[in-house]
Amino acid sequence: MTTDKPSITVLGLGAMGTALAGALLSAGHPVTVWNRTAAKADALVARGAARAASPAEAVAASPVVVACLLDYDSVRDVLGAGHLQGRTLVNLTNGTPGQAREFAEWAACQGTDYLDGGIMAVPPMIGTPAAFVLYSGSRAAFDRARPALDVFGESVYLGEDVGRAALTDIALLTGMYGMIAGVLQSLALATSDGAPATDFAPLLTRWLQAMGGWAEAAAKQFDSRDYATGVVSNLGMQAASFDNLHRTADEQGVSSELLAPLGRLMRQRAADGHGHEDLTGIIDDLRKDNA
Ligand code: FVH
């Protein structure tokens, strides 16, 4: 079969790399794959992917190389020997902004155009409208790779600062883990009298959806540094009722360790004279630079 679509190499066939390579195959790209545990390529090879015997062979096969490995150390292990001259490297491995910047410098020394990325999807979402992927770094690399990258989900380019995608990715994951912490605590509490979690979950979903607009309202307050206007739920009130979250957990024999840090910050800020404001001002206390 011939195709005018560019050939793409995918390094790393864990759950996510397999989904990425599968989406590229479905979109008609010639795909070359490599994975440390070679057997993980079998299903993709059965669908038409080419199996490379080494990272060097995989990199040689395509102008655009997508890496999706466990962490930056594994990317270094796989690409450390080089062979990247003239290639466009798109690294979709989770990492920090500092790691992305360091890796971009290393890639530049290899003569490689580098794009860093953060995938905002779980593997089954890849190739569906629900998926989006953050990119930052070389604009030329983004433009070159984009027709293939768009196969994964919506491509969101955040600019030439190569650390921006990782920072945004980690900030989004932070929001997600905050929500997960809340859901875990909530389910522990709601089931502490023997009720099934599934009876309670629809109410929790409804309540979280009703509060879904809060992030954007908080962002507006934070950007203006005005925490006192239009407050509907002041911090003093919230700090007092938050204590009931701890008391109820105690009464029900449930640990409230997931809640403790937020309660402490709320009480401290109220004690510092901000009880009449919204709790958004806590962001100032979290920012070590206080800017
Ligand atoms: N899966 C998810 O829900 C998230 C969604 C958002 C993005 N993350 C990030 O994607 C990276 C890969 O995640 P994954 O889900 O594919 O992870 P695994 O299934 O555990 O596969 C890990 C692959 O990395 C290979 N690997 C690990 N260490 C090395 C090494 N030293 N040298 C070479 N390869 C290495 C591993 O190979 P093998 O164990 O199969 O031989 C897998 O290919 C990750 O950054 C997520 O944070 C996923």
Automatic annotation (TrEMBL):
Belongs to the HIBADH-related family. Residues 161-288 form the NADPH-dependent reductive aminase-like C-terminal domain. The keyword Ion transport does not apply. This is NAD(P)-dependent oxidoreductase. InterPro entries: 6PGD_dom2, 6PGDH_NADP-bd, HIBADH-related, HIBADH-related_NP60_sf, NAD(P)-bd_dom_sf, RedAm-like_C. It comes from the Bacteria. Keywords: Oxidoreductase. Residues 8-157 form the 6-phosphogluconate dehydrogenase NADP-binding domain. The keyword Oxidoreductase applies. It comes from Amycolatopsis tucumanensis. It holds the Pfam family NAD_binding_2.
